[in-house]
Write a structure and sequence with these properties.
The complex is a heterodimer. By secondary structure, chain A is α+β, with helices and mostly antiparallel strands. Helix content of chain A is 27%, strand content 28%. Chain A folds into two domains: 19-373, FAD/NAD(P)-binding domain, CATH 3.50.50; 453-549, Glutaredoxin. In chain A, a hairpin with a 2-residue loop joins strand 20 (314-315) and strand 21. Chain B is an all-alpha fold. The chains are: A alpha+beta, B mainly alpha.
């Protein structure tokens, strides 16, 4: 593993087949007519119309803000790129009104299998319990996700999506950020109160603010091929250490919609990166794996992975999210999913700051919470990558021992690391109110709300995550059996489970998952995280917890 | 709980002997493989990350001190 700095050249990915799934036209905007000191002013400019930028723009627009969304390209859909979207991401997309489309198109999975040589070591189920609206994961090509998000953007007049608008200059001022934007018809300028940079791993805005972006680069190369074929493999994640078809290295097979399969093969650090991605050289590798060559290539790419993050996610009034702020290796589906969590974490805070309900300090908690999440994601994915590509002879020896012992012992099975898949980080955050009473289980403050089945008022079956959306995706008080009978503070939604007029917890799963007793109340943040919980809330305690969660103390 | 470094075996010589004998007839590489497996098995049996870290620190200190002594000679 070599130390690299932010300016290190990133191995460029090569597509064998350009697939412009969706092409968008550049359109001149009235802002471009303004000249000289006469500059259009906007509350928020989001840079980068990938999954993170699109989701953030939708979230802010749904919260009532005008958003300018800039992208330097005019198309989406080159290659599958990210394919695994987590339960947490699907719950977020439900809040943005696009969850159903993603799930309808995606392939649902929760089971993974790990093989060593030609025998299975173990299998795991990422969502072994029933009673959740969304599955552990879906696989969906990133270009589908982006296309559905663009469709949603087009339903929201508050978003001005501008293709082929490239930010080429950035000047921080006390009251905002002055952006210079280059288009096919020349340059224009915009003044933004806040700029959110979602412009990816090679973020040009990160360079413009002069931020460091250092971390580790892994020496081994990974060949990623998406192939189209009809196959009877189940919809599971299959991972091999040292398979017979690819001796000494690892391999991954994962299904996507449209009979497309993601195949990932680890190559040696000294593999010829130009020769290895030629289709005529990739074909025999894959044919050896599948036992036939009845497949077509959708996409081929060769990667070296980096794990790194910015020291600070906020730079004045420029805020970084997604790959622009942090990069991980892909084993664990922690890239796009963590970026979506960034967007959700930031949107409600920026909303409050723009409305002057909270001070700018609330944005500090975005950095606190999401940089800790990035550290966790980097730690997990670095461990996975190190396990797949041991750095020294002794590391390889310990891994060999783990793989050998895993055949007959449970403890060693659990040490086999073929990727630890993305789960929401638990925040250790100043926005949380520490528990003041004993709790047996249930989500502690700083935890993403667990889902559970409930019966809605009209009797139809629903989920807690639906009820949260019905309340407006804002601060919401979740109470069980007439929780203390406190009045929710102004502007706070309420979900009442059980008791008179409440939603019915017919399967008793909501109560169990929240360790609820009569009177129990949870205060949920607008991103669905638990801010505080009480056995018997009092009005002052609730007000204090709300103030704290909104950064008002 | 902390790492116990007092003598825990009724017959320490038996324990040492068992470890030594198992290496007889093994190549250097096989011995190293064996040690790796044994360490993993015993670490899991202890099942306490703090004790494991203490043990690692103690063992590492020995390696470093031995190296320093060799350099001084």
């Amino acid at each position: 593993m070599a130390q690299v700095n932010g300016q290190a050249k990133v191995e460029a990915e090569i597509e064998v087949k350009m697939q412009a799934k969706t092409q968008f036209g550049y359109r001149r905007h009235a802002d471009q007519e303004r000249t000289g000191a006469d500059v259009a002013e906007h509350a928020v400019v989001v840079v980068g119309a990938g999954p993170i930028g699109l989701s953030l723009a939708i979230d802010l627009a749904q919260r009532g803000h005008e958003v300018v969304l800039l992208d330097d390209a005019d198309r989406i859909g080159e290659g599958s790129r990210a394919i695994c979207f987590s339960k947490r991401s699907l719950e977020y997309w439900d809040r943005l009104g696009v969850g159903d489309r993603m799930v309808d198109k995606g392939v649902v999975w929760s089971v993974g299998r790990i093989f060593h040589g030609d025998s299975q070591l173990y299998e795991f189920n990422l969502l072994p319990e029933q009673g959740h609206k969304r599955p552990a994961f879906i696989n969906l090509q990133q270009f589908y996700a982006e296309a559905y998000l663009v469709d949603r953007v087009e339903q929201l007049p508050a978003i001005s999506l501008r293709w082929r608008n490239k930010v080429t200059g950035l000047e921080q001022r006390n009251d905002g950020v002055l952006l210079t934007i280059t288009t096919p018809e020349g340059s224009y300028r915009l003044l933004a109160a806040y700029v959110v940079a979602c412009d990816g791993a090679r973020s040009s805005l990160r360079q413009m603010v002069g931020a460091e972006f250092s971390g580790h680069m892994f020496e081994d190369q990974f060949l990623i091929a998406d192939v189209k074929m009809t196959a009877a493999f189940p919809t599971e994640r299959w991972f091999w250490f040292d398979p017979p078809f690819h001796a000494g290295r690892s391999a991954l097979l994962h299904r996507q919609p449209d009979d497309v399969w993601r195949i990932d093969l680890q190559l040696r650090p000294d593999a010829d990166s130009v020769a290895e991605k030629r289709p005529e050289n990739v074909r025999p590798r894959i044919a050896r794996m599948l036992g036939h060559d009845q497949f077509e290539f959708e996409w081929i790419s060769l990667y070296k992975f980096q794990c790194r993050r910015m020291d600070k996610f906020t730079h004045g009034r420029v805020i970084f999210a997604g790959d622009a702020a942090h990069q991980v290796s892909p084993f664990g589906a922690r890239g796009a999913n963590s970026g979506l969590e960034d967007a959700e974490n930031l949107a409600w805070k920026l909303d409050r700051v723009l409305r002057k309900l909270s001070s700018e300090r609330l944005l500090e908690s975005y950095h606190t919470e999401r940089s800790a999440a990035a550290d966790e994601n980097i730690r997990e994915s670095t461990r996975s990558t190190d396990f797949m590509a041991p750095n020294t002879a002794q590391e390889a020896r310990l891994r060999r021992a783990v793989l050998a012992l895993a055949k007959e012992t449970e403890f060693a099975k659990r040490m086999v690391n073929g990727g630890r898949l993305s789960v929401p980080t638990i925040y250790d955050t100043p926005l949380s109110t520490p528990d003041g009473e004993p709790w047996g289980s249930g989500p502690c403050p700083g935890t993403s709300m667990p889902d559970a089945p409930i019966a809605m008022r009209d009797g139809r079956a629903g989920f807690l995550t639906d009820a949260f959306i019905d309340q407006g995706t804002r601060f919401t008080l979740l109470t069980f059996d007439n929780g203390g009978r406190v009045e929710p503070p102004d502007g706070v939604g309420t979900i009442r489970i059980g008791g008179e007029g409440g939603l019915a917890d017919r399967e008793n799963l909501a109560g169990a998952r929240y360790d609820a007793a009569p009177g129990t109340a949870y205060l949920l943040r607008p991103d669905g995280y638990v801010a505080a919980r009480f056995r018997h809330p009092t009005q002052p305690a609730l007000d204090a917890a709300l103030a704290r969660a909104a950064g008002l103390n | 709980m902390a790492l116990s470094t007092s003598s825990n075996f009724a017959k320490p010589d038996d324990a040492f002997r068992a470890l030594v004998e198992t290496h007889r007839g093994l190549s250097e590489a096989q011995s190293a493989d064996f040690n790796a497996a044994l360490v993993l098995i015993l670490a899991n049996h202890i099942g306490d990350i703090d004790i494991l870290r203490e043990a690692i620190a103690l063992a590492k200190r020995r390696v470093i001190e031995t190296q320093q002594q060799q350099q001084q000679q």
